Amino acid sequence: MSKGKKTQRLDKILGHLGYGSRTDIKKMVKQGRVTLNGTVPKDSGIQADPYEDRIAVDGENIDYREFVYLMLNKPQGVISATEDNRDRTVLDLIPAELRAFSPFPVGRLDKDTEGFLLLTNDGQLAHDLLSPRKHVPKTYEARVLGEIGEREAALFREGVALDDGYVTLPAELEVLEVMRGEEGVQSHIRLTLSEGKFHQVKRMFMAVGSRVMYLKRVSMGPLALDDSLALGTFRELTEAEVELLKTYKKSL
Question: Which sequence positions are flagged as catalytic?
C-alpha cells in the first residue's frame, strides 16, 4: 500500500485498529502505554501520519492499514451477513482484531452453500464487484439430481427462464462426472455465471428439471478459493491478490 502524508488524530488511528474507544485510548496514553516516534505523547488527539510515524502500544509497533481483504471458505449453516439474531454469521468466524475493521461480505452465499466468500471494508471495491452492470463471473461446483449433459449446457448457454419469467444471461455449464449409485443418478457440474439473482443456481437447475443437492462457490472474478482453506477458516489476501483485484476492478 502506498504511504501517504495525510495525518490523523492518534486516537483515531488506534481506534481504527481496534485498540478501543477514544476514552480507552486516552487512558492508555495517560498511562504511558503509547509512544509516538519513541516519545510518550501528552495528548491522545495529537496528529500523526499512520504510515510514516512510528507508533507503538505496550512496546509493540503497530502495522497500520486502512483496508482488510479476507478470503473465507464459508461452511453450511452460517449466514452471509454482519449480524443475525438467530444464526452465526461469517463475522463470527474471524477474530476480534479483524472484526474491528468492520468488514462485510461481498455478496452473499445461501445458508446451505459453501465456499469462496470475500470479506472487506473496501466499499468501492465491493460496489464494483457487485454491480449488475459489471457482470463479474462467479464459478460454482454442484451435485445435482439426474444426468446432466449437452442439452442442459446448450440451454444454459442460451439463457433459461426462471420461475418468475426472468431469462438468465448466458452461462457456461461443464459436466465433471455422472455418478450412479443407490441414491440414483447425480451429476457433478461446474457452472460459471455473470450475474447473481436470488438462489440463481438452484432456480436454473429447477428450470431444466433438476435439483441442486450440494453447492459450493469456487471462484469470484480473478480469485479462486484456496484449496488449503478448511471449511470455516479464512486467510488474508496476499499483496499480489489484492493488486490483482484492484487491477481487475479497473478493467471492469
Answer: 110
